[in-house]
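Appendix C reproduces, verbatim, an entry submitted by the partner laboratory led by Prof. M.T., so that reviewers can inspect both the input and the predicted structure.
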Amino acid sequence: MLVADQTPPASLARLADEAFSRNGDHDALIFEERTYRAAELVERARRAAAGLTALGVQRGDRVAVVMANCPEVLITYNAIWRAGAVVTPVVFLVPPPELRHILVDSGAVAVVTTTELLGNVQMAADGTDSVRHIVVAGELDPTAADPRLVSFATVEAHAEQPLQDVAASALAAVMYTGGTTGRAKGVMLTHHNLATCGRSLWEVAHVPGITVSLTPLPLSHAYGMIVVVAGMHEVEPGLAVVQRWFNPAEWIALCERHRVQRSSLVPAMIQMLLAEPLEDADLSSLRYVGSGAAPLAEDVLREFERRVPGCEIHEGYGCTESGAVISANPPGRRRVGSVGLPIRDYTVRVIDERDEPLPPGQDGEICVRGPGVMLGYWNAAHETAAALRGDWLHTGDIGHVDSDGYLYIVDRKKDLILRGGFNVFPRDVEDVLLSHPDVEMAGVVGRPDARLGEEVVAFVSLRAGATAGAEDLVGFARARLAATKYPREIHIVASIPLTSVGKLDRKALRAQLAGRETQPI
């Protein structure tokens, strides 16, 4: 049986070197129809590390990475770690004000980006005290007067230098949360956090012979990054097909063309794929789909597996603060509806409002201990103390464990709707609406109500050719939910807003609701 290294090396850069030594040179990455060999990626990272050092990047410095998925993201991460610095990944869709907050809060000394995003990066960096260099992958305008600009090619042109190794306890990444409840906070993750979490994810997900994967996840998100780190523990040469960003038709085409065996997705991506003619494609090579970042409706899981025979969806669960993963369904031992068992060395408990542990089957807040749990929030001691009180990470998610230790997610604590004194979890309502054949996606939020405290409001987008109206959908939900739960108000919209990683954006739905006149059914 193949077994991952039980003691990951001190740094992620060292882990990457060991993976290359173990698996040798091979076709490692396909991006936009170009194949990259492992040796090329490693050499470019080593040269780029020397180039960053020449720019003055020192151990512990934060370097922001603002790029859509491309080989340069992976090269840059490895280069930053080889230089002893700290990766600060930023999803490329963030607007300049949010990016500016991240640059100022983190004190980033440099930004690595691409030409199409350069304008936003410059706007965000202007006037900041810390940003000294903006490294740009792609063709630079030779007339550009900004003295901060450096081409990625120039950074890569340096001769390799010895790896600047750091302790396992050193910071590897400051990853900013989505900021759904306020300004984004920087989650401090060490090399040990990410290496051990990645190892445990690899252990639970590894199936011998499954070596071709497709990654549409943003590599700037914790879910995407931990998939990369897990790959560093691989004991078989693997081939990763990477999408610049998720496009369902392209995802299907890539699966066919490269005989993809595994892919990591989020529920919204799976729902988008169900709107495609899956039966017309040859997806016979696809064996496993990992689903994370948000709960997956069981009807969606069953429908995908029906339409893609031979493929199993395995749900997992985690958050940025946990190192990205807390639990996962092992191949051969999955439990549909559950997000699986805690990964190795992680302990989960469910607590009540007094922080007292609850028995199996009872819903409460999910708390976790494990080697991947963050050091805390960057420059936010109060928030750190609240999140890590009692030496447990309080996730803010509501769920329960069963008698066998499998974990079930109900919803986010902050999304709970209190209607007339009764708790309504939006996911319960969304899952029912998603079971309607005309509904493509659904999102549920609470609206302030003078009599009941809050009222349940749903937004839905319909499949092509669907004819269901708001009254039809209210009746459908009413027949399947308790009187305290079904939505009295439904808005049919062209699309449901998603976050940059493809999660349902309830913050955006609340903003939409605030701008609408209520239309109770």
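The chain has a mean pLDDT of 91. Additional entries are available on request from the coordinating office.
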